[in-house]
Design the sequence.
């Protein structure tokens, strides 16, 4: 069964460093998302991406964050200068586009980011 | 604005007991989706169910059942004859009925099933 994959599973970085979290969405999917979950808290929407553009972003998704689809398979989240409060689990999700019918978002296993 | 409230932060029950997880939502939209996800200790999000706002029929899947009541804006989840493997954090969630809309999650209920 196709699935969303994310690498690495765990990333440790120093405050101020840049990190890139990688996701491989399901191959025929066209909508992509990043969500964040600070330890012990709820899952929060960061950004959605379609047709090489950001569709929507939350207040969390400030200038330190960027997303990119550098090739036909990867979808990345970059944090330019990490802060301690960026420590969280980051989930990637994707959904296919089929008319106006709701398309289920399939979540990846997550990348746990630890900022020291 | 959309909001999901899970008032129960943590619940502990003894194995084989039934347990209900409460979920109350707020939305101005007339059409929307409701979800439940399970997050086991390993951390991944496991999709359990999606219901649309048109369909208030209760649903049963094995030991799991869901009670959707629009009149009270609630979408409660019951586990019958709970098992230790049901121990996890359970999230209720909401989204608009657009094809690429974000999912809004509640804060989750941590469920402990004691042997």
Sequence:
């Amino acid at each position: 069964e196709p699935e969303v994959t994310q690498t690495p599973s765990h990333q440790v970085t120093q405050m101020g460093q840049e990190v890139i979290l990688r996701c491989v969405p399901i191959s025929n999917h066209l909508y992509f998302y990043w969500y964040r979950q600070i330890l012990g808290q709820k899952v929060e929407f960061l950004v959605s991406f379609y047709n090489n553009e950001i569709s929507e972003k939350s207040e969390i998704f400030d200038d330190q964050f960027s997303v990119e689809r550098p090739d036909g398979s990867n979808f990345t989240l970059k944090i330019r200068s990490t802060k301690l409060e960026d420590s969280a689990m980051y989930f990637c999700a994707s959904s296919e586009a089929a008319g106006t019918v709701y398309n289920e978002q399939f979540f990846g296993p997550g990348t746990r980011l630890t900022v020291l | 604005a959309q909001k999901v409230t899970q008032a129960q932060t943590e619940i502990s029950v003894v194995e084989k007991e039934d347990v209900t997880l409460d979920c109350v939502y707020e939305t101005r939209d007339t059409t929307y989706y409701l979800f439940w996800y399970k997050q086991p200790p390993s951390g991944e999000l496991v999709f359990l169910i999606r219901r649309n706002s048109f369909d208030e029929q209760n649903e049963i899947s094995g030991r799991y059942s869901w009670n959707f009541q629009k009149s009270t804006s609630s979408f409660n989840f019951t586990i019958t004859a709970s098992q230790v493997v049901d121990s996890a954090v359970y999230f209720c969630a909401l989204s608009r009925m657009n094809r690429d809309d974000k999912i809004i999650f509640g804060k989750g209920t941590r469920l402990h099933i004691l042997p």
